[in-house]
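U., I forgot to send this yesterday:
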Amino acid sequence: MVDPLYPRETYPREGYPTESYPADGYDPARGAAGGRSSRRPTVRAAGLWAGGLATAVVAALVVLVGLMAARGVLDVPVAGPRTDRLIGDSPGLTYAMMAGAVALVGTALLHALLLAVPSPLKFFGWIGGLTTAAFALAPLALHSDLLAAVAAGVINLVAGTAITVLLISVGNATSEPAE
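Result:
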């Protein structure tokens, strides 16, 4: 006896869109759970870290240009006392190297977010934006010279924005979300 609710005959393939599915109707890449996949996102780590290194160079150069503008054009003593050298002193170079280090830490954070969370670039944007805001406001609490504090805050704001925007772009170019 044949159950009328579950006939043994199959539906004809004509009239149904099947071009995106293999001949047997099952796509292992999509999984068996309603099209959801347990695949992890794909991250091209070499490209991500190369972009992170390039971002570190840009961040260091942003700080050096900012120091040249503040010290040379505006005559504001940012990152140390007034000297005859615009950028060649130890505090200025340390400031630039720290900006590069922050970019590399940001790259590590972005790599972890790309592998672990949904919408990683949105989360990274928020984390980078709030961190940039904190670093832009920090000199106002730490410096007694208001002009030097504002100049350092502007340098931090531009460097942090460059790091965040460039790393989001790098993350977008070097990752593919799981389907």
